[in-house]
Protein backbone atom coordinates (compact mmCIF):
# COMPACT_ATOMS: atom_id res chain seq x y z
CA UNK A 1 0.00 0.00 0.00
CA UNK A 2 1.35 3.42 -0.95
CA UNK A 3 1.62 6.11 1.68
CA UNK A 4 -0.03 9.41 0.93
CA UNK A 5 -0.37 12.83 2.55
CA UNK A 6 -3.83 13.39 4.00
CA UNK A 7 -5.53 16.60 5.17
CA UNK A 8 -8.94 17.28 6.67
CA UNK A 9 -10.72 20.57 7.32
CA UNK A 10 -12.69 20.42 10.56
CA UNK A 11 -14.22 22.63 13.19
CA UNK A 12 -12.79 22.74 16.67
CA UNK A 13 -16.23 21.57 17.83
CA UNK A 14 -15.92 18.44 15.70
CA UNK A 15 -12.51 17.75 17.23
CA UNK A 16 -14.10 18.18 20.68
CA UNK A 17 -16.76 15.61 19.84
CA UNK A 18 -14.11 13.18 18.60
CA UNK A 19 -12.14 13.74 21.83
CA UNK A 20 -15.22 13.04 23.97
CA UNK A 21 -16.03 9.93 21.93
CA UNK A 22 -12.46 8.63 22.26
CA UNK A 23 -12.43 9.22 26.01
CA UNK A 24 -15.70 7.34 26.51
CA UNK A 25 -14.93 4.46 24.12
CA UNK A 26 -13.39 1.31 25.57
CA UNK A 27 -11.01 1.09 22.61
CA UNK A 28 -10.40 4.85 22.38
CA UNK A 29 -11.93 5.08 18.90
CA UNK A 30 -12.70 8.76 18.19
CA UNK A 31 -15.07 7.85 15.32
CA UNK A 32 -13.08 10.17 13.07
CA UNK A 33 -15.01 10.68 9.85
CA UNK A 34 -14.63 14.19 8.39
CA UNK A 35 -16.84 14.97 5.38
CA UNK A 36 -15.40 13.79 2.05
CA UNK A 37 -15.65 17.33 0.68
CA UNK A 38 -13.34 18.51 3.46
CA UNK A 39 -10.59 15.95 2.96
CA UNK A 40 -7.68 15.97 0.57
CA UNK A 41 -5.34 13.19 -0.51
CA UNK A 42 -2.18 14.78 -1.93
CA UNK A 43 -0.64 11.45 -2.90
CA UNK A 44 3.15 11.87 -2.64
CA UNK A 45 3.28 15.10 -4.67
CA UNK A 46 4.08 17.55 -1.88
CA UNK A 47 6.82 15.30 -0.50
CA UNK A 48 8.39 15.24 -3.94
CA UNK A 49 8.00 19.01 -4.22
CA UNK A 50 9.86 19.39 -0.91
CA UNK A 51 12.63 17.03 -2.04
CA UNK A 52 12.87 19.01 -5.28
CA UNK A 53 13.16 22.32 -3.35
CA UNK A 54 15.76 20.91 -0.94
CA UNK A 55 17.89 19.68 -3.82
CA UNK A 56 17.59 22.64 -6.19
CA UNK A 57 17.02 25.57 -3.81
CA UNK A 58 18.23 24.61 -0.33
CA UNK A 59 17.33 27.20 2.28
CA UNK A 60 14.45 28.61 0.22
CA UNK A 61 11.69 30.09 2.41
CA UNK A 62 9.13 28.00 0.50
CA UNK A 63 10.41 24.84 2.18
CA UNK A 64 9.30 25.86 5.67
CA UNK A 65 5.92 27.10 4.41
CA UNK A 66 5.19 23.83 2.61
CA UNK A 67 6.49 21.76 5.53
CA UNK A 68 4.17 23.53 7.94
CA UNK A 69 1.18 22.94 5.63
CA UNK A 70 1.63 19.15 5.72
CA UNK A 71 3.34 18.61 9.10
CA UNK A 72 1.06 20.79 11.21
CA UNK A 73 1.98 22.69 14.34
CA UNK A 74 1.01 20.49 17.28
CA UNK A 75 0.02 16.96 18.16
CA UNK A 76 -0.70 17.65 21.83
CA UNK A 77 -4.27 18.87 21.35
CA UNK A 78 -5.31 15.94 19.16
CA UNK A 79 -3.51 13.01 20.74
CA UNK A 80 -6.83 11.15 20.76
CA UNK A 81 -6.50 10.83 16.96
CA UNK A 82 -3.47 8.59 17.47
CA UNK A 83 -5.71 5.59 16.78
CA UNK A 84 -5.74 2.89 14.10
CA UNK A 85 -9.18 3.99 12.94
CA UNK A 86 -7.62 7.32 11.91
CA UNK A 87 -4.23 6.33 10.52
CA UNK A 88 -2.22 3.17 10.16
CA UNK A 89 0.49 4.10 12.65
CA UNK A 90 3.20 4.66 10.05
CA UNK A 91 5.07 7.88 10.76
CA UNK A 92 3.92 10.55 13.15
CA UNK A 93 0.36 10.70 14.47
CA UNK A 94 -2.00 13.35 13.09
CA UNK A 95 -1.10 16.98 13.76
CA UNK A 96 -3.21 20.10 14.02
CA UNK A 97 -3.13 23.50 12.37
CA UNK A 98 -5.47 25.76 14.35
CA UNK A 99 -7.86 28.11 12.53
CA UNK A 100 -5.61 31.10 13.28
CA UNK A 101 -2.58 29.23 11.96
CA UNK A 102 -4.59 28.01 8.94
CA UNK A 103 -5.10 31.65 7.93
CA UNK A 104 -1.33 32.24 8.22
CA UNK A 105 -0.52 29.14 6.16
CA UNK A 106 -3.12 30.08 3.54
CA UNK A 107 -1.58 33.56 3.19
CA UNK A 108 1.94 32.12 2.94
CA UNK A 109 0.91 29.52 0.35
CA UNK A 110 -0.86 32.20 -1.69
CA UNK A 111 2.41 34.12 -1.92
CA UNK A 112 4.47 31.15 -3.13
CA UNK A 113 5.38 30.91 -6.78
CA UNK A 114 6.70 27.45 -7.62
CA UNK A 115 7.30 28.24 -11.30
CA UNK A 116 10.94 29.37 -10.80
CA UNK A 117 11.66 26.01 -9.18
CA UNK A 118 9.84 24.13 -11.92
CA UNK A 119 12.10 25.71 -14.53
CA UNK A 120 14.90 23.57 -13.04
CA UNK A 121 13.04 20.32 -13.80
CA UNK A 122 15.39 19.23 -16.62
CA UNK A 123 18.44 19.64 -14.37
CA UNK A 124 16.70 17.86 -11.48
CA UNK A 125 15.67 14.93 -13.68
CA UNK A 126 19.22 14.64 -15.03
CA UNK A 127 20.39 14.39 -11.42
CA UNK A 128 17.99 11.48 -10.84
CA UNK A 129 14.88 13.31 -9.62
CA UNK A 130 11.50 11.76 -10.45
CA UNK A 131 13.23 8.53 -11.46
CA UNK A 132 10.05 6.48 -10.93
CA UNK A 133 7.72 8.98 -12.54
CA UNK A 134 6.33 8.12 -15.95
CA UNK A 135 4.13 11.18 -16.36
CA UNK A 136 4.78 14.89 -16.55
CA UNK A 137 6.08 15.92 -13.13
CA UNK A 138 5.47 19.61 -13.91
CA UNK A 139 1.74 19.07 -14.32
CA UNK A 140 1.58 16.69 -11.35
CA UNK A 141 3.29 19.16 -9.01
CA UNK A 142 1.38 22.20 -10.23
CA UNK A 143 -1.98 20.45 -9.85
CA UNK A 144 -1.27 19.13 -6.36
CA UNK A 145 0.25 22.39 -5.15
CA UNK A 146 -2.86 24.20 -6.40
CA UNK A 147 -5.02 21.69 -4.51
CA UNK A 148 -3.03 22.32 -1.31
CA UNK A 149 -3.26 26.09 -1.73
CA UNK A 150 -7.01 25.99 -2.44
CA UNK A 151 -7.63 23.62 0.45
CA UNK A 152 -6.03 26.02 2.92
CA UNK A 153 -7.68 29.04 1.32
CA UNK A 154 -11.11 27.45 1.78
CA UNK A 155 -10.31 26.37 5.35
CA UNK A 156 -9.20 29.92 6.22
CA UNK A 157 -12.31 31.47 4.66
CA UNK A 158 -14.51 29.10 6.68
CA UNK A 159 -12.54 29.49 9.94
CA UNK A 160 -11.66 25.79 10.08
CA UNK A 161 -8.74 23.90 11.53
CA UNK A 162 -6.72 21.46 9.42
CA UNK A 163 -5.58 18.02 10.59
CA UNK A 164 -2.67 16.46 8.69
CA UNK A 165 -1.38 12.88 8.67
CA UNK A 166 0.18 10.19 6.51
CA UNK A 167 -1.85 7.16 5.59
TrEMBL record:
Database matches in Gene3D superfamilies: YfbM-like super family
Source organism superkingdom: Bacteria
InterPro entries: DUF1877, YfbM-like_sf
Pfam families: DUF1877 (PF08974)
Protein name as it appears in the record: DUF1877 family protein
